[in-house]
Predict the 3D structure of the following.
Amino acid sequence: MSNDYKKLKLHGFNNLTKTLSFNIYDVCYAKTPDQRQRYIEYIDEVYNAQRLTKILTDVTQIIGANILNIAKQDYDPQGASVTILISEEEVKSPNLMNTESPGPLPEAVVAHLDKSHITVHTYPESHPDEVGISTFRADIDVSTCGRISPLKALNYLIHSFDSDIVIMDYRVRGFTRDVDGTKHYIDHQINSIQNYISEDTKKRYQMIDINVYQEKIFHTKMILKSFDLNNYLFGIETNDLTLRECQNIEQNVRQEMMEIFYGRNYEDDE
């Protein structure tokens, strides 16, 4: 099948739309209201509109796009958004590939894109009660029209965020015609999003797939395997806490992560 895709000659422009939705979550314990506020301010500073614009600009380089317009905004009290429109151009690179393999990091740009857009929105928040849990979510959408798949930017995106949980959705929509008039609903081989992720990342995460091949819908989610409580504390360390406090905090952080990963509240099941 992959050999057929390489030989595919199209009638006109490639009208397939390929969209990657990439969501990352960072979970943190901030003990006091002041610490929770400082955590949100810290996240807002680290992932402000300027930093996010740099990340998305690198993504456009990886997929070979030309930037037409950038709209960016930092929000009050927190959060940021960036939207980049990218240009349509003739695909010229003979090295253009959609093989199931991890894409490059920013220093290894090899691909070209036809047209579409890239967006990112951030959502820092804290638990309203005195539980001490705060989370940061970034939603990134990379939508392309043409031959190249946005999955080639996935490896870079995962390495751009220090993420406890990553949830990815990839969908190919529409169809394109070959020179004989036959419709093609996908133009590259794909069995799993996991095949576009580097091996070192796979070793760090537990991963689950839910794929609907006939609908060209692919879903993968990842959660970190290792757990070190010090990595989830903001403004304090385990040495500042009692053993009982450490156990309670770890239970709350783990529950938060599992609820996000499985998409349900455990307390509702009791």
